[in-house]
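Is thiamine diphosphate placement plausible here? Inputs below.
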Amino acid sequence: MHSLSKRVFRTDQFPFTWCPGCGNGTVAHAVGIAVEELGILDRVCTVGGVGCSGWIGSILRCDFFKAIHGRGVPNAIGLKMTDRTRKVMFFSGDGDCAAIGGNHFLHGCHKNVDITVVMINNQIYGMTGGQAAPTTPVGSTTPTSPYGKIEAALDLCKVAEAAGATFVSRWSTAHPVQLSRSIKRAIMHPGFSYVEVITQCPTQSGRYVHGSGDPNVLLDWIRQTCRTKSQMEKLSPGERAGKILIGDLLEEIRPELASVTYQLMADLQKKAAAQGQGGAV
Ligand SMILES: Cc1ncc(C[n+]2csc(CCOP(=O)(O)OP(=O)(O)O)c2C)c(N)n1
Ligand code: SF4
Ligand SMILES: [Mg+2]
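Reply from A.M.:
I modeled the complex. Tokens:
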């Protein structure tokens, strides 16, 4: 076995419970490389949402917190606020992050707290049997949209940008090198970072959305659908329909919640001490 695997992953958990051909293993590998190259495994704490993808962080050799459905962002914020040396990563499915967890996600972006959300977009509720998620493409026939999904897929990168996230990127399981690099940048970014991964779920979205449970067919769909900004610009408006923008989409620096809060506490303590009040603020 590759030495990276033994150092970074809980190999006693292998083979993991995911279906053959699931993209979650590719995401876990990209994260493992990023964490190994940064040399920060002892400082990483992962949070998992519900769903198949929520278990990605549990196979890394680091602290792991299992959140309830949709509540991963506030748990991750709590972990960061109590120990700023931690590198907190939240692994969330598209159902978990964009539906029940949408409100918490918005305010994580808005507060610009230094955590990394890795959102695994398999276009469906995988674990529970293939119900339509906000990210499921329009027209998809699923157990909860038997006549075809009416609404267009929600673009969570646009939501993250609009809500105030300061690092936003989207890659795919067909771009594992770019994905790993982007996760590295996101971990080191001093603010709320959001990395979305377009991935394959042969068992549910393969069957219901893409008409094939073959991981190779699904990876081909990903390759044909995902386009960088410069590739997108070469397409006509008609050709752009249904394509998904990938790339490192936004990076900016803004005041970060934990740093500002700790600085404020230090200033207030200094002020209280100067006034002879002492005690903790
Ligand atoms: C409050 C609550 N409601 C519903 C569920 C059932 N549930 C478990 S996993 C899941 C869907 C997860 O889908 P997604 O977040 O896309 O993850 P995936 O399995 O696709 O990786 C749901 C609805 C739950 N665990 N808790
Ligand atoms: S149901 Fe889909 S997301 Fe879940 S383990 Fe299987 S292939 Fe992966
Ligand atoms: Mg999903």
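Short version: The beta strands are 44-48, 63-66, 87-93, 116-121, 167-172, 193-198, 226-227, 244-245, 247-251.
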